[in-house]
Amino acid sequence: YELHGTENIPEGPGLIVFYHGATPADYIYFMARLLIEKKRSCYAVADHFVFRLPGFKILLDAHGVMHGPKEECVSALKKGSLLAIAPGGVREALFSDKMYTIIWGNRKGFAQVAIDAKVPIIPMFTQNVREGVRTLGGIKILRTLYERIRLPIVPLYGGFPVKLRTFIGEPIPYEPNVTAEELTAKTKAALQALIEKHQKIPGNIFRALMERFQRQKKDD
């Protein structure tokens, strides 16, 4: 695992917006590396269903994972913390694919949180994150079933030991006159730019595995 661009994380509060792979393993690696190298922690926003899993609530609370609401997120940022969120959430995790399509729908609440807290947004993307674990989200009936019951019933496969590199982009500064819609569009464009710069599309499991043996690190 490699982490690039930590200099783009502000000393104070900031909202980290990242692309959601089939699992959030890359975010866990990022959080651990941030704590080791920068001695900083980062709160995260997770889907509501995670908090209904038996025994998970205590673990999530210990790691600073919250399910919202907006007021709680704004409060954490105003206290000087970092907060991470993947606007695509479970839908992006299950139904995006090796083309790395961003699936946000009409979600813009994260942008309003950044505006209300007056903090910058920091885009983040992990190379090969979809090659480590794949989903069967291309099966239409599974998508239909998910939209009906809103539970992650899509099967996963993999656990391949691919090379993972997390890239942190330049912050999008707070602007008092920007709307949530405009800030959402800016953030999506910044994240898309990271994907296009650092990810070979379509993703390929064998290529991602071979990248573990590259002697030279990929340029930032």
From TrEMBL:
One of its GO terms (molecular function) is acyltransferase activity. InterPro entries: Plipid/glycerol_acylTrfase. GO terms for cellular component: membrane. It comes from the Eukaryota. Residues 14-129 form the Phospholipid/glycerol acyltransferase domain. It comes from Semnornis frantzii. This is TMM68 protein.
